[in-house]
Structure prediction request, 562 residues.
Amino acid sequence: METTQQTESKIIELKPFADEMVVNMGPQHPSTHGVLRLELKLDGEVVREAIPHIGYLHRCFEKHSENLSYPQIIPFTDRMDYVAAMNQNWGFCLAVEKLMETDESRNFEVPERAEYLRVLICELNRIASHLLSFGTYGMDIGAFTPFLYAFRDRERLLLLFEKVCGARLTYNYIRIGGVSEIIPMEPGSIAEQNFLDEIEAFLDYFEPLIDEYNDLLTKNSIFAERTTRVAVMSAEMALSYGATGPNLRGSGVDWDLRRDEPYSIYDRFDFDVPVAVDVPELGSVVGDCWSRYKIRMDEMKESVRIVRQILAEGLPSGPVMADLKAVRPPQGEIYFRSEAPRGELGFYIVSDGTPKPVRLKGRSPCFSALSALQELSRGLMVADIIAIIGSIDIVMGEVDR
Amino acid sequence: MKPEEIYEVLTKQFGEAVLGFDTELAGDPSIRIAPSAITDVCQYLAETDTLAFDSLMCLSGADLSAKDEEFAVVYHIYAMQHRHSIVLKAMVPKTNPHLPSVSHIWKTADWHEREAYDLYGILFEGHQDLRRILLPDDWDGYPLRKDYKEPEFYRGMRVPY
Prediction:
């Protein structure tokens, strides 16, 4: 095989101590939430070092994007965080819209109806994502039942998404300038009423269940033993590592982009931002695995609140798509971040005025949060590694892009 | 603080290491910094109380055109307390792209710099563990460079198989 000058010979050196054992955890491991390989250096059962090796799901998202027009990129964002794809679509579209807004000659506005549909769908998607996180975290720790409960409820949400865009996971629903109208839903029609009724029925069914799940898993003493006071991430550490979303709030930082830098129409809704506090009766301290997990449980309630406010107001009538002739942002660059279920999803776009981006970078919240794993896991037990990975809630599709 | 004010503060502090303030194009304005000074500037931004940039949102490499002689390294930084943000840009020559690392200031830069190295071949001096992160260790070349050619073979396998 011919090699170029750029080839660097890589000699992987392992210098085990007398008592040290090197164990590979993954890439195929049920509790790594995808294909993540951890190189564990163990002293008995104590982890001296856990070195994450990522990239097994790398699909060159950024390289692909440079050869695609902006609307064509949206399906690729679906495949980043595939359990919260609506939020990924939205984050990308917001960034492109923001860049296009800077050009006054091509003025356009996202229609009200589309904004409401976006918030409605994305908050439901947040619930679906947190449900998956809750279910799989229980299973990682050894509680099988929550997984079945969570997937039962998530299924109802996936059916709803299927009705709105025809897909269960990779939606391509939110488009630049509005939302897609693949399945028409006229304002005030029976189809719309049925759709909203179905969501309401789901919320009525689901809201009391959150408390049941808290009884089932959150307050379970075996679960609490496994997760409280494990891998405490201080607020400074979380900020320095770029941990965002539930991981940052789990470290006690009161920060949510939906409230603090409101985009779209989030400023119209009334919701709280859950922030971790010490819970002495379970032994939890701010920043431990249990706190990060608990934030997600509380956030589901807030999402229900937001969706209920939309249902009470009703969807405004009008079009769902802005009148855009072509998606061609002006020459310039933008970085825009939005609050996805796993944290701050940022897109850095450089445009030269053509229909394709010159550079597109997806700033993945999981990528940053996972980089803290090495420091978090030092000196803990092997079983704690599982608890940490579940609590920072990573999706490898987004880490590797 | 507004980006213009931050630019003024930086010019006062660092003089010629601050190369300019780009506002002509649409979107975020950015401050161009000499690559050799990037660590000092970032340290100053992070440690001065009135600025207090405590969060590095994003660090990206960029190759804007095959004709350009330089890569850009772009820093998007945010201050949680003051709620202001700034974009820094350092241009490094394509023939020998290197600049100091900021991974000791914000730990998230560790993996982001590894990614920029992996995809663009930009070397970050002083980085503890600069090796490929997304691509396999034995990958040839840096795929996000505009002049990158896909290899014909990878480990003896024809690539467009």
User: Anything to note?
Assistant: Chain B has a mean pLDDT of 87.
